[in-house]
Amino acid sequence: MPDVELTGCTPEPLHSYLKALGVLRIVGEQLDPQAQGWWQGAVFHLRSIYGPDELVEALFTRYTPTPIVAPWNGGSGFFPKDAKEAIEAIEASEDERLAPYRKTIAKAREVLAKLGIREKPDKDAKLRILAECRAWFPDEAVTWLDAAYVLTSERPEYSPLLGTGGNDGHLEFSNNFMQRLLDAFALGRSQSRRRRIEAEPAERARMWLRSALFGDLVPLLSRSIGQYHPGGSGGPNATQGFEGKSLVNPWDYVLLIEGTLLLAGSAARRLGVDSGDKASFPFTVTGVGTGYASAVIAEYGGGSDRTESRAEIWMPLWERPALLPEVRQVFAEGRAQWGGRQARTGIDFAEAAISLGVERGISEFRRYGLLQRNGKAYLASPLGRLRVQVRSEARLLRELDQWLVGLRRVCSERKNAPAGLWKALQDVDEAILAYASQGKGKGRLLDVLVAVGRAEWIVAARPRARGNSLRPVPALSLDWYKICYEETPEYRLAAAVASIAGVKSKQETERTEARASPQWVVPPLRANLEPVSLVGNRWVWAPESRSAVWGPGSLARNLGNVLVRRAMEAVRGRLENLPIHGARPASLAEVHLFLTAQTSDDRLEDLLRGLSLVAWPDWDVSRHETATAYAGKPLAVNPAYALLKLVTLDRPLALKPGSEPVSIRPEPAIFSLLRANRLTDACALAIRRLRASGFVPKITEPRDLVTGIDGERLLAALLIPVADIRELAQCVLRTPVDTESQVAEMGTASSSL
Q1: Assuming Cys at both sites, which of 323, 533, 610, 633 could form a disulfide with 449, CB separation 3.0 to 4.6 Å?
Q2: Which pTM value belongs to this model?
Q3: % the chain with pLDDT above 90
Q4: Do the beta carbons of residue 666 and residue 651 sit within 8 Å?
């Protein structure tokens, strides 16, 4: 059995992919049941009893077309104003290969006569024709009916691949198929009132077939190919000059339509969602307007009135030789599963492809979107490729599933949804698609976390737009932090701030179950970024909250706002120390980089928003992670920062080993002085506070500490949790400081972490 490389059948454009399916289907059903097909090097291969020349001859002389007729469509050849040359030529033909076609056409005329329909049918008449055709068409035509439409309990559902039941705008697929079939078979047509259309020579028809299979260059006909080949559909700027004609190889069109019949639909009941039926077509999902250069928000599918996307189709490629029954089974049952349900959108499909949620044996998917590109015409635009590879970390995306479904619903169901919400959704989808399609890498998964953090910020700022159905992003598992870990100072600084825990009242801490409205003395840091509150283990919107102080200003300004707010709440709650203890404190070297503006504020803010969504554990100084980039290097500690940090600690200090820890109460006036850029006065006040607490500073003259650092940025740095307290104390204190006993004394700093 020779292996034939069909160089004319490639995964892109869509008509070329469908040709490959059509060849395998025709050969497997009519010529060689043992024929096998597979994809290799972006070309379709066929293994059968035929070599290249024998394959061309067998298809040209023995192929029996599937009877494709659509009497429910205007322009199908059955009504007075339709083009009838092709349908009449087939009826008049004596070719045995067209016998099933003639039988089906006769049955279609009987259905129309039975229903008394003589003109182009309206919506109600179309529904009656669809039902009658399903009941009375011969077996040879059932495959076409299954591919074109599905009758559900509510209404007919049409395959996006075949328009609205074999019709797309002014192009009627079944009549066009019959016309191209006559060209491909080199059959004569009936006499037309306008002119006589001569039959194409048989040799030219063979040349077209060879070109369709092997890509040979041949003259093409000026005919329409519809949505399947955007490059050949003509229109403005399609070729030299102002406008080009639509050109087609007749065999291309015949084979691609035969290939679409492998994508037959079914009526799938979605139990637990609603009581109705919904049509299900293989590898077909709602389109998402992202993941390609020309993407626009209007190309999101769903309930939006402004959608310019009919659907997305993810065409599978397989690298192992497969028989036609095996391939048919893949298309019949190969639906993507994500989160225990069938994939609904292109994002669901991408997530399923990297988490064992698709039919096994598929090596790659080619993504196509049926998008409005030439006026209001839909074209099958290639949108990218996705290599199927299982990634264990993809499970983390399931934690975002319900929130993403809610955001998608809010955007699609509200006609006037703000563009900001659409953009937020588009950015998250873009990040997920990039992670799924561009190879394994924690950096791509971190991009997803950052995009979700940005989206949450936008959603939180638009309470009217989000309504009551969209909740905040749920608390994400700590695995997000571990798997996405990035060896950069921005990542570790963001993690330090994002992991700042909240403090509850003693009564609340002693309860075994959280009350409906927990009494936070100081909430977790996420509540400072957006108006939310943690109820048990669930985040809810809290529009009345005064803890959210993050605004549109600079990063340093906002970090300072958070520190001031938490200090105010600590005073109100009579806490001895500032509630800024973090589960992942930063190193002094990283704080120094922030102080001297050697870090990217934009990147740090993006990471902070994303990492604030993580459910952080309790503070544990033994788990402090020191960056390997700073190991063995001299520690740079700004003395002004060290002095001020000692009076804004999140825990007590011990004078010497074994001594009782001393809590240094924060001095709110220091924050105002730093805001006013009065560093000398702030340092003088800190020296007095340390002396009052029993410590002896090395520094006696505050003016010596002023080193040109911006006061606003220094205030922001004081919020960052650090674990290297010994180095700070050694820098500015004369009294030995015991930091080893601080871990045991952490419980005295607050009633709960």
Answers
A1: 610
A2: 0.84
A3: 49
A4: no
